[in-house]
């Protein structure tokens, strides 16, 4: 057996072999950028930071009036911080649909993955791309020339929603008069967690233990599920009143083990001193990121429509 022996299983995402090799079991497929015939959306890949390899896939809607400034979606993909990419066919399809619906430019961020790049590297990469969006000297023309920087939205699903939350806090903390202005954040089935089970986690010890394993795999912290990166509701974690944006949309799925954390996030926001507008939408009868896996169902189309109107409403 030798080096092919498994030392750690992280179902359904990955396994670690005795020799340290990481085998990813999902999220490894890629599709090229280009013109999407279904939506007319055009995309291209760019390397933003050659020294780290951090890249992004840029999207532009099918528009004729190029002089009109458009909202920008900075998108962070999910995958428990350890799988998937902006070139994943499921994410590529989702971004094409979202960009067409929102009539927005999008930057879909390829942050480096754990465990080879343990947290907080994903947050640092995502923060660096956000700074590039607002002021990088080598910004792509799609960003520099076509974006209305008063309408920049951070959107992500699962781990990507967690990233969007932390960056919206960091904008406020980084500068009392922020040059980085975030109009809103869209959190799709956000990946928040905690050591002590709440809601349906109490009765579902199997899925509770599975999510515990995911987090311990990507974050080398003695605090486990009570690290403030994954549990924003602890005493001492940054308060939600520090979110540097004007509005927040929280989307949860009725059958998702993470649902109760998303609802708690919304409830805590309502109780906090944060003054922006907030909305919670629950999709009944669906599981985690169902819209990625089943994008053509009516509920997925409805989710994308909600995001599009969130981005375009004043």
From TrEMBL:
Alpha/beta hydrolase fold-3 domain segment(s): 73-291
Signal peptide stretch: none
Domain of life the protein comes from: Eukaryota
Pfam families documented for this protein: Abhydrolase_3 (PF07859)
InterPro entries referenced in this protein's UniProt entry, alphabetically: AB_hydrolase_3, AB_hydrolase_fold, Carboxylest/Gibb_receptor
Enzyme Commission code(s) on record: 3.1.1.1
UniProt GO MF annotations: carboxylesterase activity
Keywords attached to this entry: Hydrolase
PANTHER family, per the entry: ARYLACETAMIDE DEACETYLASE, CARBOXYLESTERASE 2-RELATED
Entry similarity comment: Belongs to the 'GDXG' lipolytic enzyme family.
Protein name: Putative carboxylesterase
């Amino acid at each position: 057996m030798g080096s092919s022996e498994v030392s750690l299983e992280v179902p359904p995402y990955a396994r670690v072999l005795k020799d340290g090799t990481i085998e990813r079991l999902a999220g490894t497929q890629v599709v090229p950028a280009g013109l999407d015939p279904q939506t007319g959306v055009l995309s291209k890949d760019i390397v933003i930071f050659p020294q780290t390899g951090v890249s992004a896939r840029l999207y532009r809607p099918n528009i004729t009036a190029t002089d009109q400034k458009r909202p920008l979606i900075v998108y962070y993909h999910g995958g428990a911080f350890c799988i998937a990419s902006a070139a994943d066919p499921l994410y590529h399809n989702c971004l094409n649909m979202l960009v067409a619906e929102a009539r927005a430019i999008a930057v879909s961020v390829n942050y480096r993955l754990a465990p080879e790049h343990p947290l907080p590297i994903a947050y640092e990469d995502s923060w660096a791309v956000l700074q590039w969006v607002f002021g990088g000297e080598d910004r792509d023309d799609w960003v520099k020339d076509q974006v209305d920087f008063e309408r920049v939205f951070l959107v992500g699903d699962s781990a990507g929603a967690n990233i969007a939350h932390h960056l919206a806090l960091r904008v406020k903390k980084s500068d009392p008069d922020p040059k980085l202005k975030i109009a809103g954040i869209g959190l799709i089935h956000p990946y928040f967690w905690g050591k002590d089970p709440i809601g349906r986690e109490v009765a579902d010890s199997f899925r509770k233990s599975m999510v515990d394993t995911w987090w311990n795999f990507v974050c080398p912290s003695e605090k486990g599920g009570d690290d403030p990166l994954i549990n924003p509701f602890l005493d001492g974690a940054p308060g939600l009143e520090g979110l540097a944006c004007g509005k927040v949309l929280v989307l949860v799925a009725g059958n998702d083990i993470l649902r109760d954390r998303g609802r708690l996030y919304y409830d805590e926001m309502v109780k906090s001193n944060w003054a922006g507008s907030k909305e919670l939408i629950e999709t009944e009868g669906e599981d985690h990121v169902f819209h990625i896996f089943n994008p053509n169902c009516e509920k997925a189309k409805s989710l994308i429509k909600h995001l599009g109107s969130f981005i375009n409403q004043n």
